[in-house]
Predict the 3D structure of the following.
Amino acid sequence: DAGITQSPRHKVTETGTPVTLRCHQTENHRYMYWYRQDPGHGLRLIHYSYGVKDTDKGEVSDGYSVSRSKTEDFLLTLESATSSQTSVYFCAISERGSEKLFFGSGTQLSVL
Amino acid sequence: AQSVTQLDSQVPVFEEAPVELRCNYSSSVSVYLFWYVQYPNQGLQLLLKYLSGSTLVKGINGFEAEFNKSQTSFHLRKPSVHISDTAEYFCAVSDFVQGAQKLVFGQGTRLTINP
């Protein structure tokens, strides 16, 4: 299995609070991604990174920000969580020239 | 914009029966197509991929898929399923941007194997 660790694995929070999810990789892969999974929607790309400090928006980026200060860490922040952001969040990584993504085990986030 | 439609949200089959999970895509350019599998409470794993060449692609665990450009389809098949194949299956199309692979996923098909 690819060395991807997501933390926390589960989180319950209240509407309006800030939340940060962490993705840590030990593979030294260049590209990192954040997806959210919702029933009936499959997985949708939130943000991705193509290098340290280089990030770009995905399909559903509103309400989310990201940061990547080191190759191994990619943080996803919900500045003010809303109930519509209740979801399972997956981090993924890939290497340049490779078409294969490796996924983490996910973070279950509930916003009450 | 690229999109993927999985035509069945749930597919129940009996053990050792054949199965086909249907996927149609929409893209105006050359496509890379994938099937990923998600076992309960886990992340996704790559099952197989089509990049170019032979339209019949073989993957892990006995699965195969056929790329059909004229019908814009990429259906997944297995001739005989096992209980362990119970999972959710996702079809995806890829868009490479700055070397990053931005996958667009279908809605998923939940495959349930009954003994």
